[in-house]
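Suppose you are handed a protein chain with no further information: no name, no annotation, nothing but its sequence. What can you learn? This example shows the usual starting point.
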Amino acid sequence: MAKIADIDLGDFPLLLAPMEDVSDPPFRALCKEQGCDMMYTEFISVEGLIRDASKSVQKLDIYDYERPVGIQIFGAEISSMRRAAEIVEEAKPEVLDINYGCPVKKVVCKMAGAGILQDIPKMVQLTKEIVDATSLPVTVKTRLGWDDNSIKIEEVAERLQDVGIKALAIHGRTRKQMYKGEADWTQIGAIKRNPRIHIPIIGNGDIDSPQKAVEYKKKYGVDGIMIGRASIGNPWIFREIKHYVKTGELLDPPTISERVAAARKHLQHSIEWKGQKLGILEMRRHYTNYFRGFHGIKPYRAELVTQDDPEVIYNLLDIIEERYNSFVPA
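A reasonable first move is to predict its three-dimensional structure. Written in structure tokens, the prediction is:
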């Protein structure tokens, strides 16, 4: 059984990775419906939070149906991180998560996200300050290291555990790799086998099928799996993995009606939460996966990602459902 502090996540939890402009409340609602055990907000800039920037503050929105949910923050200044931890606590999530994994240049150049992997002592100090500043359980998401020559993830895991984090999610790539190449789970497995480690170790990277989830669970012994890019436009991956873990059988893929219903609901909530312009814009990255594998779908998808009138989009979704109702995807 995997527990983060007192939060019971069941035998083999599936977590939704924090993803910028993806893991917002509309998308989290769909993932929760499909069996996701714990979700994280998009990562939030601590500088934005303490300046009360509207985009950062809006990301604190969490809803009871999502729980348990973690709010993830990133930053590099200790005083800002401590103040942000207090603001996060007021939003009442189950967990405060620190992002030490984001590889994006504008984040790492400020020594935040994966940038802090270049300074492990500072990473440990920053984590301790946050653990001391909040009554929430603190968790961390990070990568193996800055590059192949500076992988110290086992030392990092021990030291972060020693200053009081309650779980560690590890993406099996270095910062230098970004999202290229294959994720290396052998290092994640080594940490799980380390007799000094007693907090849950969550594996992340390249899990895109039920078979892979079960294979990696057996091979590396992780306490749970965090899924990121494979869930975009595909919230069903959670129910598919759950079913396969339980029965060893693969579920049929979602029908076209289920796909259209999910896309409709997602778009509707997205517009309600972000406003029409941004809600429509940020939905576009999901359509490819919602309708992947349908022969001749390309013109419809092209239309979906260029239209900015919601009624036209809803109408297009109806046309897609009607056109593909008897079609089984490849």
